[in-house]
Amino acid sequence: MEEKEKMTFTIVTLKHAPQIDISGQYEDVAKVYLQALIAFGAKCDVNESGEIKCQGERYQTYSQKIKDNLISLMGLPSNNVIGQLYNIFKQMEFGDPFAFFPQSLTDEEISIVRDEMLKRFLGSQYGNYKSYYDNIWKDIQDNYEMISYDNGYNTVHSIGEKERKDRICRFCGLKMPDTTFKNKSHSISEALGNKNIVTNDECDVCNGKFGKGIELDLINLLDFFRAYYGIQGKGGKKSFVSSDFEISKEDKFVSLKVLDENVVLEDKNNIRIQLKHPQKINLQNVYRALIKYALSVLDSSYLQNFQETIKWVKSEFSCNELSWVTILVTNQISDSFPQINVFVRKNETKGLPYSFMTLEIDGLEIVALLPLSSKDDCAFNNDVDFKKFWDFLKPYNQIPILQRFKPQIDEPKEFTYNINLNQKN
After folding, report:
1. Predicted confidence (pLDDT) at residue 101 exceeds the cutoff of 70
2. What is the pTM of this model?
3. DSSP character at residue 175
4. What pLDDT digit, counting tens, does each position of 300-319 carry?
5. CB burial readout 41-60, b (16+ within 10 A) else e
6. How many helices and strands, by DSSP H and E, does the chain display?
7. CA atoms of 412 and 130, how far apart (whole Å)
8. DSSP class of 58
9. Smallest Cα–Cα separation from 171: which of 160, 183, 182, 162?
10. Which residues have a Cβ under 8 Å from the Cβ of 150 and sit 6 or more positions away?
11. How does pLDDT run across 189-243, given as a tens digit for each residue?
12. For residue 165, what is the DSSP state?
């Protein structure tokens, strides 16, 4: 049997670096590579010996011409790869910079490419941007390792042991035959738009308990925003209907219907709407679900530092000494969301939590500390300690806060959304 040729395409943008793996006969792989180069504007010639030589720019900006080239090439054989490239660029705006590489890149190489990209396309403004970026991210980068996964570009992230027979559940510690791993365990709830981030070593029993338990509280809390931003969950977009309001999104338009008694006219330009959620919500379960997501994407070598955390996530006990959960309004919309980032401290710096996480969903970003770690000497559950930590988070403390809560009570409570509408002049 003839050995297959393999190649990897990497598209580096300012936010992501998706990879496309292709394999097949040499001629087929070479043809796809040539089609990609042509789509990106390369000039290709055939010399007398039949060799094809192409010249093009590695660093470019997305344009109408590139879009048209990709669309036309999708009609040719092997168009599945070109289709994947088209889906990547579909998330970008004309003028956005990118770089194309016919190989896989390490995180360090991607960082170097992005730096070069910024130098080329920001020109004289690069120095100001670099100074600003280094200033707000330097402290985090110096003290934390960042583990990040997103839902974008049809790239499946399988976290944990690939061989089913060798899996040990990271939450209960059981393995086959004492438990099973037949179902796909989404690291982040599918209802929040996640299709591609999967945890292999989460057993069916734990997955079922989380999905019918703590994750429902988080999903219920986010019901309004799932409808407002049109998040594609399980079964598509959802409207949110209550006895006194209804919200849905079609295309770019949001429809909100409320009873008059829930509307407070502050002045002629400002309206406040109070919307009571039809179900009670356990905010400690909301926190548990967020931390369950974080633990689902960490390498298993870190889990030894979160044994008490795992017991709490499994609701084996309640905790009334937790820190705050902060929900930020970013208004950023992307098909690559949800994105989860887990930061793990790489030194023994006092006064910083061992780990914290952020969850990006369309329009929102949620920030929470991973509690109860054996590596922490402080719970960050008082105003002074938490303020020091929040001041440390420069990339996040500049974003408007939608809501911040400290879930000390471990039982369902009534929940009300307070929505402020401001009329622009």
Report:
1. yes
2. 0.80
3. B
4. 999 999 999 999 999 999 99
5. ebeeeeeeeeeeeeeeeeeb
6. 12, 20
7. 46
8. S
9. 160
10. 16, 197, 336, 337, 338, 339, 340, 360
11. 999 989 999 999 999 999 999 999 999 999 999 988 888 887 776 766 678 888 7
12. G
